[in-house]
Amino acid sequence: MSFSSLEQWWEEWQLRILVLASLGTQLYLAYFAPTRKLSHLPSFYRFLVCLAYLGGDALAIYALAALFNRQKKRECYSYFSVGGSKDLEVLWAPILLMHLGGQIGISAYDIEDNEQWKRHLATAVSQVTVTIYVFCHSWSPLADKRLLVAAILLFIVGVFRCLEKPLALRRSSFNTIVTSFHPAPRTVSTNREVELEQYIQEAKGYVDCNQDHPTLDKDGERTHSNQLNIPDKLFVDFAYIYTERLAKLKAFWLLDDENFFKALRIGISRTFNLIFTKLWQFGDENRDPPYFDNRLSYFLWLTTLTLPIISITLFHISHKQAYRGTDIKITFLLLYITYCLEIISMGTLCFYNWRVLPGKVGQSSIIVPEGKRRHITNCLSSKGLLGQFGVENTYSSKEITFLVCNYVKDGWRNYIRDVDSYWKFTDTRGHKTLDSLERNGCVVGGNLRESIEKPLDESIILWHIATDFCFYHKGTPPDSECARLCRQISNYMMHLLHDNPEMLMPGSRRDLFTDASEELKAILQADNVLLLVENRLTQVFIDKVQSKSGLFNEAWVIAQDLMKISDDGKKMWEAIRGVWIEMLCFSAGRCRGYLHAKNLGHGGEYLTFVSLVMSHGGLETFAERQQRVHLQLLPEERKKRAVQHQLPTEERVILKEAATNQEAGASSEVEIVLKS
User: Which residues are in the DUF4220 domain (predicted)?
Assistant: First the structure.
């Protein structure tokens, strides 16, 4: 086949290939776009969804351009008129407009796409205008009238679908979502610290009265779950008023761990739908959806389900004898599959909306940084230790969430007493655990204290390495549940530092991970570790660390202090677990809600679960931390005033009159003394 004949074949089949490719891309998005919300989705499949999202528009636009050029060339080149499918090809234009509208399961791939809705609107208007112009210019007056009516109906749907996309982006833009949430009412109280103390005392009183969790019936579980499984104000950095925080705390306290975790997952799933899909929005306790946009979106969806049926029927009964058989088959495929895309997309979105799957907890390790330090990886894999030091992602989000829930509940039971302890509880990074060890008679070395006083990113690296030292040096059995969870939390914190440092804490230094990896590489390159047997590799590595100064030597000193806590290792791992839980909550309390929302588009971060546990558990979140009140009263005076505010109005009046009379009596006594 010569180049000229190949070029002629491409000119003939180019449009057909492009429209079928556009159809296939939209079919892929309809099936697989909702899977983006799954945290365990492999990166390759997530990349394919991104490629389909970006490439789908490009294919449809390219196909429209090819169609326009084909209509212009038809009058100039004779082979373009073979088959008499000119009008049939023009019928594909509104179908391509429908493809440009995308699928209901994906409106934006990144949260930044929502902010560009004006650009998408301008693009959509220009595409619709040009397509209608070419259609009117190219349609033959001799064509079947039924085919013309079918094309007009498809154009109505195509225009609606094409303009619906920027509308959905505007509805999901961050400013619009923020506006839809109920803002906290203006503060009436003139003494905010007393108001905060009152909330803490009411919450503490409720916790003390409900130490034994009552068994809820199905209606009670549903009621309390519905308070927590909605998009949270945490994602827009809104602070809850104290009455709302107390109501959420009560729901958190009464639900068992399983139902609470399920409510968390449903709430995160609904937040994903709110930001990244075209699914119309529903109101809840936290927000009012945009009424006009919601009704319009629902109307457009019903239109796309009804009008194409008429078009398909008209195409069936129209005269098609003059058209090419291949083009007739392609038109049938385009009509039927494009119509089914709406149903498929809605079905898959609902399926993944309710399917509860284990959440991923990302893992990274200094020992084997993913994709780096090939020498270290080869050394460990040759000795069969790559899996042992591995950084595979884990799905223990439920178990770790239960630990965080127990930590929050224990804080309300045994630690939080007033405003100072309430704030201190979310400011600790291991202090509470070390203080508890000392109260129980354990020796806590000064190195442990110093390690948690360092900047958070440095503390995380030191404790990450120390955790691995304790795990391998103590010969921890592989079935140790506490040790397993400690290492998973440790690796997750390293994952945040390496892959998402802005969520770990503002100002976190990713370079610390690289520096530690370089130091490890220098240590292992000194000798040929390939000659060592498996049970000697870890011990030789520890011996080499002891003889050098640096990060790993500091971590080894911390590990030695930890191993002195107990002989059996049980208390040691409980202490390590306590420190990691405190660091995890410390980081969650300092992460902006916008970052949580942004990462939902890529499967989400487990830190979002922790932040929601703290929010539902009545603790201080990022937004509330930014609005801390300056304390002026002594703790006793603040408590006294808070208790008075909790009393009924009549009792408060009596106490106020008694205090006034007491002050008046004291003044008269002073006056008598002065006269005498």
Answer: 51-357
